[in-house]
Design goal:
Elements (H helix, E strand, L loop, with lengths): L1 H9 L4 H12 L5 H19 L27
Helix pairs in contact: 1-3
InterPro entries: Transposase_mutator
Pfam families: Transposase_mut
Organism: Glaesserella parasuis ZJ0906
């Protein structure tokens, strides 16, 4: 259930909208406080990830490509 709550929250749904979705989709009554507890736990993990120490260097591979298709047709009039 937590995964569904997080998925809906990540799509921008409010806590009340998530409660309504669970009722509509699963015919399940979930409390707004349950939704808040789950989303608050995720917010804490996101904040930890955002504030983690970064490495000095990150290797990057950049690839670029151009594909040109040329078709020559000769028509005689």
């Amino acid at each position: 259930m937590d995964e569904q709550i997080i998925a809906l929250y990540s799509k921008g749904l409010s806590n009340q909208e998530i409660v309504e979705m669970f009722k509509e989709l699963y015919d399940a009554d979930v409390s707004s406080s349950l939704i808040s507890r789950v989303t608050d736990a995720v917010k804490e993990r996101v904040m930890e990830w955002q504030n983690r120490p970064l490495d000095a260097v990150y290797p990057i591979v950049y690839l670029d490509c151009i594909v040109v298709s040329a078709l020559h047709c000769a028509f005689s009039a």
